[in-house]
Structure formats: structure tokens, C-alpha cells
Amino acid sequence: MTNRTVAGALSGELKQFIEPARVLDSPEARIAYSYDATTRQSLPDVVVKVKSAAEVAEILKLAGRLQVPVVPRGAGTGLSGGSIPFAGGIAMVFTEMRSIKEIDQENMVAVCEPGVVTGNLQKEVERQGLFYPPDPSSLNYCTIGGNLAENAGGPRGMKYGVTKDYVLGLEVVLPNGDIVHLGGKQIKNVTGYNFVQFFIGSEGTLGVITEATLKLLPAPPARKTMAVTFKSIDRAAETVNAILYSGVLPAILELMDQKSINYVEDYLHLGLPRHVEAMLIIEVDGMPEAVEAETSKVAMLCKKMRAEDINVAKDNPEAEQLWKARRAVSPAISRVRPTKIGEDICVPRSSIPAMVREIRRVEEQFDLPIVIFGHAGDGNLHPNILTDKRDAQEMERVEAAIEAIFEAAVKLGGTLSGEHGIGLSKKPFLPIDLSPQTIDFMRAMKKAVDPANILNPGKIFGSEL
Ligand SMILES: Cc1cc2nc3c(=O)[nH]c(=O)nc-3n(C[C@H](O)[C@H](O)[C@H](O)COP(=O)(O)OP(=O)(O)OC[C@H]3O[C@@H](n4cnc5c(N)ncnc54)[C@H](O)[C@@H]3O)c2cc1C
Fold first, then answer.
1. I need a surface site. Which of 196, 200, 215, 236 has the fewest CB within 10 A?
2. Is 232 a pocket residue for ligand 1 (Cβ < 6 Å)?
């Protein structure tokens, strides 16, 4: 943390050009912005609720002059510590920049500020018959700025892609305070470097996003959901590939393992079969006739793959009932032990059965309960270790188990994170996945845009550049 004299001077200087009501330095405010959805916490010296790109630029210039860190923050739902101001400085909060500036029906794009809540944008575009597919489970709270900075994904990722696939243009404030405009409403644009994507997934370390132009799609008129159970998890994983080979591209293909099924059943008493090793939740969408035909094809395939039970929802309320189990996994497993550490590996789809076996091996080796669920369609699994962070000895085993999971994922051609980012939580493990040359190249990019290391320092890499 910056020393208190510098922190006092910082607040004073900020209040010279930002309304004092939006510059918060009380202990309560600093605590409120000191954590995200991980178990970590660190106090900022001051919190600023920004309202425009011009303000962001002035703050970055001031921070550069005083050499204090600036940490952009959306809703603080991040799962890798990205918005935690672990070196103190300024928490730059975007919740007041929440205007959807335009929904351009003709060009099918939305232009919005970074503090717009993802679910609100989705509802607004749906009112106009359009569709913004990226659907992180946190969509009722998280912001578009946080989604862009983490390249957030969700269950629809396998058919529709993730946040990066919907970004056409950005307004970004660089660490030196310059405001740059990249891309725009055009679908095609090869004028200069593709720097729109440079900032996506950069975890607030390269620039501050102050506006985004997002691609929209026509809303699919029909969708159908089914839940399919399997005695063997390998069979469930093989079925995912069989469905895709058959020519059907479901919008969603979610996997729950036996532990998650049982914890959800303990929690909600939905009548889920406790003995099955896996459940797939499958959703197809599109034109009504196609949806009917594809649903029948998928159901037939599941039967051929010896699924134990195939439950196709007849209508929306029944579909909601099927989704209830998948949505309840996180709250259900949170009740089991005091601490839940959720990981986010992604492997090539064909490696899912091998990855599940590796996780079971790690579970046994380190004697820790690990629940597996995730997006089977795109290989993005969330092994969740159920533990107690007050038990130092157990936490040592947890750290070793996480490392073993990452090593196994990378050996199987996978990666450390499919959607939550590296932030603070995974930076010690970066060398498992990336070569020294690749890390040096990334550091060089960071140094080129932020030589003074003002913007979200110490995230992804160590604190020194
Ligand atoms: C219950 C739960 C479920 C979740 N489910 C999913 C899921 O399905 N898929 C998924 O991908 N994630 C999921 N997440 C993680 C999280 O919601 C996402 O990473 C989300 O994108 C974070 O958005 P946020 O607004 O909360 O950002 P924050 O947590 O505030 O910040 C995240 C990162 O973005 C940076 N940032 C924020 N705004 C800006 C900006 N304007 N310019 C530059 N950088 C910025 C921050 O510095 C930080 O590095 C889940 C989290 C929870 C708690």
C-alpha cells in the first residue's frame, strides 16, 4: 500500500478534477473495493468512480506523475484476483459508466460503456429481436468491461464463441493517458494491426476500456433443452463427440459429474439419479423445424450411446427445471466445506475423459474432494476443490493439487484458464503453460505500452517488468 501521506495527497489531487462524492477514501469504501470473488483481499488507497474517458485519461496521467498503481474494476466478480489492488493505489470503478449508448438494429451492433451489466445488455437487445450470446453465469452482476478484460465465456461458447468473437471496436485509454479508437461498426477491418484483440483478455494491464462496439446476432426463434444421464463419464464425453460428428451443433453442452449431481440433490432434492457418473445438459437452438429435427437426432444418438435416461423438456418451464440442477452446482458445493477453490482448465474436447481421470488421480493423491462440472462442448472444465482455508496444512495440499491439475491439463494439450484469466491466482503457474520466450514477449508488450508499470501491476506476471 502507498504510504498514508501520499494517499492523502492522491485523494486531494483527484478531487481537483473529479466530483469529491466520487472520490472515496473512507476505511469502509476501501474495504468494499478490496476483494473480488476469490478468497484474496487488499486495500486500495482511494476509490474513484469514473464517468468518462476524459476522466480516466486525467487519472492515468496523475498516477504516472505520482507513480501509483491504477486497478480497473467492474463488478468485482472476477475469479482470478484481477481487480484486487494488491499494491494499493487507485481502484478505478466503472459502475457509473453504464449507458447503452446505441443499439443499431440495421447494422446489428450495440455501443456501450464498460460498466453496463452483461445481463442488462442482453435483455435490452432481446427487446429488439437481437441476441448478444456471451453468457457468463455471473451475467446478472458482471460488467461488459470485466468481460472484455477477461474474455469471458459461458455455456453458449461452443456454438457462439466467447466475448472476443463479438468485439468490433473499442475506445481505450492507454497508461500514458492517450485515448485511442480501434475498429468500429464494420464487420471487416484490416486497417493496421488488430489491436482490438490485443486488449481483449488483457486483464486491465494494457489499457482501460471506456467504450465497446459489440456485434449482435438475430435472436434464434426456438430452443429445446434436454438432460441426459450416463452410467459412465467416459460414455458421456464420447457422446459429446458423437453429437458433433453427426452434424448437429448444439448451443450448449454442459457436463455435471457424479459428485456435483449428488451435492445438488442434497441441496435441492430434485430427484436426480445419484448413481449415474455424469449428466449432460444439451440445448439446441435455431428455426423451429430445425430444432425439432436436431433434438430427435441428438436423443437418438444418446440412446445409441447407451444413455441411462433422456429427458427432453416439453416447454420453457420444463427446460428451466432442467437448468435448475446445473445452475445450482456452485451454491450446492459451496455448502459442503468452508472454502471452494474453482479452477478453469480447458483441454481439447477429445481429452475430456483423460482429464477427468487425471483429476480423480489428483483427488486420491492429495486426499481432497474435487467436484467436476463445466462446458463439455468446448473442453472447459471447472474442477472445484472443496477445502478450508483456515487449515494451513490442507492448503499446502490444495496448492500442490492445483499444480498437478494444471500440469495434467497442459500435458493433454490444454491450458491453465479457459475463461477466468490468470490475475494473481494463477500467475505462479504460468511457466507450466507458456515458454520463457512467450512470457518474455508478453512482458515486452506490457513494457511497451506501460513502461512505468502503472496499470494493474503484478497481474499475470510478477510485479517487476
Ligand atoms: C458465481 C460466478 C460465476 C461466474 N461464471 C463465469 C462464467 O461462466 N464465465 C466466465 O468467463 N466468468 C465467470 N465468472 C467470473 C467473472 O464473472 C468474469 O471474469 C467477469 O468477466 C468479471 O467481470 P467484472 O465486471 O466483475 O470484472 P472485475 O472482476 O471487476 O474485473 C475483472 C478484470 O477486468 C479488469 N477490468 C474491469 N473493467 C475494465 C475496464 N473497463 N478496462 C480494462 N480492464 C477492466 C479488472 O482490472 C480485472 O483484471 C463467474 C464469477 C462468479 C462469481
1. 215
2. no
Instruction: Judge whether 302 and 231 are in contact, CB under 8 Å.
Output: no
Please state whether beta strands 100-104 and 217-218 pair in parallel, antiparallel, or not at all (unpaired): unpaired
pLDDT of residue 311: 95
Under DSSP, the state recorded for 368 is -
pLDDT of residue 70: 98
The reply to whether ligand 1 has any atom less than 6 angstroms from the CB of 333 is: no
Whether residues 280 and 377 share a domain: the answer is no
Residue 4 has what pLDDT? 63
Alpha-helix residue ranges (DSSP H) falling in 92-191: 118-127, 144-150, 157-160
Residue 293: the pLDDT is 97
pLDDT on residue 465: 63
- Cα–Cα distances (Å) from 427 to 202, 330, 341, in that order, read 13, 24, 16
Q: Which atom of ligand 1 is nearest to the CA of 144?
A: 25
In a domain, 60, yes or no: yes
Question: Residue type at 11?
Answer: S
What DSSP character marks residue 175? Answer: T
CB atoms within 10 A of CB 290: 15
Do 8 and 60 fall into the same domain?
Answer: yes
Decide whether any atom of ligand 1 lies within 6 Å of the 330 Cβ. yes
| Domains identified in the chain, total number | 4
**CA nearest neighbour of 47 among 100, 84, 82:** 84
| Closest ligand 1 atom to Cα of 330 | 1
Question: Do residue 376 and residue 298 come from a single domain?
Answer: no
Indicate whether 181 and 167 sit together in one domain: yes
**Ligand 1 atom having least distance to the Cα of 153:** 11
Q: Could you tell me the CA-to-CA distances from 464 to 80, 450, 453 in Å, in that order?
A: 19, 12, 8
Q: Are residues 143 and 72 in the same domain?
A: no
- Is-contact 445 201, C-beta < 8 A? no
- The whole-number mean pLDDT for each consecutive block of 10 residues of the chain, a chain of 465 residues, reads 68 96 96 93 96 98 96 97 96 98 98 98 96 94 98 94 98 98 95 96 98 97 96 92 93 94 95 95 97 97 96 92 90 94 93 92 96 92 95 95 97 96 95 96 96 96 73
325 and 341, same domain (yes or no) = no
Angle (nearest 5°) at CA 392 between 388 and 398: 65
Residue 208 in contact with ligand 1 by CB distance below 6 A: yes
Asked whether 143 lines ligand 1 (CB < 6 A), one says yes
Q: Are 66 and 108 in the same domain?
A: no
Instruction: Give the number of other Cβ atoms within 10 Å of residue 360's Cβ.
Output: 15
Q: In the listed set 330, 362, 393, which residue is the last one of a domain according to the structure?
A: 330
Q: In the chain, what is the straight-line distance between the N-terminal and C-terminal CA atoms, in Å? A: 19
Do 227 and 319 share a structural domain?
yes
Residue range(s) defining the domain that contains residue 285: 222-330
